[in-house]
Amino acid sequence: NKKRDSITRAFQLEYREAEAKSKGMAQKAVQELAQRMNEKSQFLGQQLQMEEQQLQSESQSKTDTLLKKIKDFVKSYGKQNKYTYILGAEAGSVLYGDETRDITEDVLKALNDDYAKKQ
Q1: pTM over cut 0.90
Q2: Which residue in 32, 78, 83, 102 is deepest, having the highest Cβ count within 10 Å?
Q3: pLDDT tens digits for range 92-110
């Protein structure tokens, strides 16, 4: 993203300037400057990572909200138009199903009965 690129370029420029400045410095001063630059690099990296995580979290939240709205709409649409099922385009997932047609309990009972027979 633009902010990340801008911060990275600014730090790289600052690093090059520090490198040039260090040529005439005593060894101890060079070590202190290098330490400060390393600390700044780590801090900026952590800040950028936190911002990226926050953006991902916000994006996920918006996606979840949108998906809930779509599911609620499809459910309402299915009921209003008296559909038994509405299938999704991807892998034929059921977007809406008349709950009176739910056979989950029957299937679970049959699976449990079959499992009990094999024990």
Answers
A1: no
A2: 78
A3: 788 888 888 777 788 889 9
